[in-house]
Amino acid sequence: MKRNLLIGLVVMFILFQFYRIDKTAPEYDTSKDLIAMTNPDAEIVRILKTACYDCHSYETKYPFYAEIAPISWWVKSHINEGREEMNYSLWGKYEVDKLAHKIDDSAEKTEKKQMPLTPYWMLHWDAKLTEGERKTLADWFRSLKS
Ligand code: HEC
What is the per-residue pLDDT across 65-76, written as a single tens digit (0 to 9) for each? Predict the structure, then answer.
């Protein structure tokens, strides 16, 4: 009985692997990307790319465990939702009043430690931002409003 259960679980796990996530990015105008448009200093670029861009841009770097279902589905759902709410690759495409709101939101979520999501920095230690890095990034976001 126990053996059948184990075999069932193994078969299920194998079947899961056929449902691959889509890791391709659509064609997009890279000149409309946040970093391309604002040309910030290297420190800001580093923080954005290590802590935000995997979920909020089309430049996602997929970790090895994103190859393994069902973890891959969980990773991909964060990316889909993240891109839908805030896609820094499409920065120049947001309407002006929407952009002001996105800027405030980005600064606030960084400051209040709501971003990056906890499971993300637990798996990407370099994305666990220090107080100083949070302040640097939040201040920089706000400076975009002038
Ligand atoms: C692991 C993926 C992931 C990472 C990394 C991540 N986010 Fe998010 N982000 C999400 C998801 C999912 C949502 C939507 C659900 C929510 O708000 O919790 C979101 C929501 C947001 C929103 C809200 C957009 C809106 O319109 O309300 C902002 C702003 C944001 N993130 C900024 C950031 C910033 C800035 C960073 C880097 C410091 C970051 N995120 C890192 C996944 C991520």
Answer: 999 999 999 999
